[in-house]
Task: structure prediction
Amino acid sequence: MDYRWLNALHIMAGVIWLGGIFMMAAIVVAWSQSRSAVAKGASDPLLEYARRWNRFVTSPAMILLWAFGIALMLKGDWLLPLWLGIKLAVLVFLSAVHGILSGSLRRLATGETSTVSLLARNAAWLTVVAVIVVVALAVVKPFSG
Result:
């Protein structure tokens, strides 16, 4: 596949994945702060919708982002320059945030808990900072001589 198409698909997957992270972060925080959680065992349509969206859109977009990114690394013959190493570390962090939000959604939807971790409560802001770092690194490619 052409490098430009790989790059376009990589960016599209990233935008979809990040949109899903922001959606999950907003729902998790709003739900946990509302204190009007439904009774244990009851189902909430918003939480269920967010979980389905995560399962069928956000998580596959994350997988595609990683796959296209690795393909770009191979196609570009990059030997892991410093900027890319930092970008990968930030993306591993974002993948962890995604996992934490997914778990929080599941626990809230099943009534296991009404409390949300500090990281999940701040996921939106952490994601904004991570996106700024990732985009700056990918576009400027500092430390590459």
Notes: Residues 32 and 114 are 6 Å apart (CA to CA). DSSP finds five helices and no strands in the chain. The chain has a mean pLDDT of 89.
